[in-house]
Amino acid sequence: MNYVCTKCGKITPVTTKEPCCECGGLFELDFTPPKWDEKLIDKTQWNQFRYRRFMALDDESWQSVTMGEGMTPIIRLDDNVLLKMDYYMPTLSFKDRGAATLVSHMKSIGVTDCVQDSSGNAGNAVAAYAARAGIGCEIFVKDGTSPSKIRMIKSHGAKVNEVPGSRDHCADVCRAKVREEHVYYANHVFNPFFYEGMKAYIYETYEQLGRIPANIVVPVGNGTLYIGVVKALEHLLASGVIDQFPQIIALQSEKCDPLYQAAKHHATEPEEVPVTETMAEGIAIGKPSRGAELLDMAYRHNIRFVTAPEDKILEARAHLAAHGIYCEHTTAANYAAYLHYCELYGPTPDTLITMCGAGIKSDH
What we know:
Blueprint: E1 2-5, E2 11-13, E3 27-29, E4 74-76, E5 81-84, H1 96-108, E6 113-118, H2 121-133, E7 136-142, H3 147-155, E8 159-163, H4 167-181, E9 184-185, H5 193-198, H6 200-209, E10 215-219, H7 224-239, E11 247-253, H8 258-264, H9 291-300, E12 304-308, H10 313-321, H11 329-345, E13 351-354
Parallel strand pairs: 5-13, 6-7, 6-9, 7-8, 10-11, 10-13, 11-12
Antiparallel strand pairs: 1-2, 1-3, 4-5
Helix pairs in contact: 1-2, 2-3, 6-7, 10-11
């Protein structure tokens, strides 16, 4: 299996320890899954690797890495909204999907140490799965990241570096270490193996419901879930098991909305926007590295961007908690954005919203 550079098209074996192409372009996997067939689902596995025939995997390394991630229930909130409870996973967030596949790849190619920058959830997930695989781990987070997330990362034995400044500056500091010390960059944005795990979100939904809901709400910072959702839906559509693409409602924080602003003008690159503090810390990405790719997907599939009103996040969190759903602030922003979308476009029934992070992770 190989990587293909999204910038120059150069082919590179997936065994490389480099984070990207020598031209600076990001990698894409040269992988086409077989046509969707329920018979290819391994129903002896109660984790996301039951769908491994549709995922790019090197070997069977996943067997010693998996912690039962995936297979999260879908529950009804009200007549219009279904919630996929993705914080029911080992590190209490949806990022376990991608971390499990990425760390499986790392183990298969002999990675011994890694670094990553994160707003918290991805760093915690990579730290946990790296610990399970016996891989040393160092995580860079923005100063002010939820103390609960930092404690969880440290509990897995990973070193934590708290970097003053913006989330984007944190990424720059981590990437400088990658360049200078040539340590493996276990990054959920750069490494396409991460997206292979995120595809399971859609595969599970289809298997659980026997269909895909008409509307799917997806938070977008760097776009890891967004890319996985789009790729999996494209796969199901090409396989003929769904006959149309659902309406994806992609949300950003109103205090950090480079893709929302770009989409308003049909721009091909994210807009430069001021980044101010937001409770939706998990999607506060001012310069998404795959921004052009995210926008291209949006225009191909008529994806609508919407922002989550900052002053509605705690209200949305309280409403969910009153119905037994205790989620973190960024996750509450998903529901706040959905309600704002309904204000803009009218009633929006048959909608699936991810509950991507547990509330205990953002009590600060």
